[in-house]
Write a structure and sequence with these properties.
By secondary structure, this protein is an alpha/beta fold. The protein contains eleven helices and twelve strands. It is globular, with a radius of gyration of 20 Å. Bound molecules: adenosine-5'-triphosphate (ATP) and magnesium ion. Keywords: ATP-binding, Nucleotide-binding, Transport.
């Protein structure tokens, strides 16, 4: 459904745009319907840039991004099927208006002919779908709601559309542990509706909990990707191993799988793209990482 093919993003920076920063460098992966894919990598590795390109908020420098074969095209039709939810829910609300105004905008843009009572019913149902009590949250101002409630209202808003893909960028980072689990479970529920979710995070354990497949990004490049169990259970790239080793609970089973001084990619004589080390498990060249 979502497909990134050799996507590159170069930002022009400096006073006259004279300097170039390659934020995303030849990235390819896909997200299928009913699947959560987590995009993991350290700060500055290009995760949000990828999310913003998928949402049409920033242009693609090279390669292509398509949803059901159609290139990203910002506009009413595209956003009917593709929506994003971001880290800071407060920034999506205007503090002087009640929080449910975000639903009004959806009505005016996409459903102008739906009668008001029927619309109110749809909103109530969407709010209940994200496990909020409509009586408690509707009619309130943003400052009267918690970060987790605002975040869930944004997800509810996305659910009112005919959504195919949700890009969720660090959405759980500012939530407390129990609300975080609620939001994660909610994302897991979305899968059963056939929605695809790209879950951007730097928290491995959350990605591990949620995602069928994982993409590990480093300095704008994919170093490893594949089924989550394979990537975290048997990490092949030194960078992925570092990430996994930093999470005590995930650590252990992969000891000795690949000697630390081996670049599997190089050893197998791969060239171009990633090496498919086993079914649904791809790894990049690690020669640069091995001293
Ligand atoms: N608008 C911009 N103009 C110039 N450079 C940018 C811009 N946005 C991001 N960058 C640069 O692109 C690189 C990737 O940034 P990005 O925000 O995609 O990283 P990230 O993986 O989301 O990081 P984090 O985990 O901190 O959110 C960084 O080096 C960043 O400084
Ligand atoms: Mg980011």
């Amino acid at each position: 459904m979502l497909r990134l093919d050799n996507v590159t993003k170069v930002y022009k920076v400096g006073t006259f745009g004279g300097k170039a920063v390659t934020a995303v460098d030849g990235v390819s992966f896909d997200v299928r319907p009913g699947e959560v894919v987590s995009l993991i990598g350290e700060s500055g590795s290009g995760k949000s840039t990828i999310g913003r390109m998928i949402l049409g908020l920033t242009s693609v420098t090279g390669g292509s991004i398509t949803v059901d074969g159609v290139p990203v095209k910002p506009g009413k039709e595209y956003y009917r099927g593709v929506q994003g939810v971001f880290q800071d829910p407060f920034s999506c609300y205007n503090p002087v208006f009640k929080a449910d105004r975000v639903f009004r905008m959806i009505k005016e843009t996409y459903y102008p002919s739906v009668p008001e009572p029927a619309w109110a019913e749809r909103v109530r149902a969407a709010v209940q779908d994200v496990r909020l009590n409509p009586g408690e949250v509707l009619g309130k101002y943003p400052h009267q709601l918690s970060g987790g409630q605002l975040q869930r209202l944004l997800i509810a808003r996305a659910l009112l559309l005919d959504l195919k893909l949700l890009v969720a960028d660090e959405i759980t980072s500012m939530l407390d542990a129990s609300t975080r689990i609620d939001v994660l479970n909610l994302l897991a529920d979305l899968k059963t509706r056939g929605l695809g979710v790209l879950y951007v995070t730097h928290d491995l354990s959350l990605g591990n909990y949620l995602a069928e497949r994982t993409v590990v990004l480093r300095r704008g490049q994919v170093v490893e990707r594949g089924l989550t169990g394979k990537v975290f259970g048997d990490p092949l790239h030194p960078y992925t191993r570092q990430l996994v080793a930093a999470v005590p609970r995930l650590h252990a089973p992969w000891e000795d799988a690949v000697p630390a001084d081996t670049c599997l990619y190089h050893e197998k004589g791969a060239s171009g793209g990633l090496l498919e080390a086993e079914r649904d498990h791809f790894v990049a060249c690690a020669c640069g990482e091995i001293a």
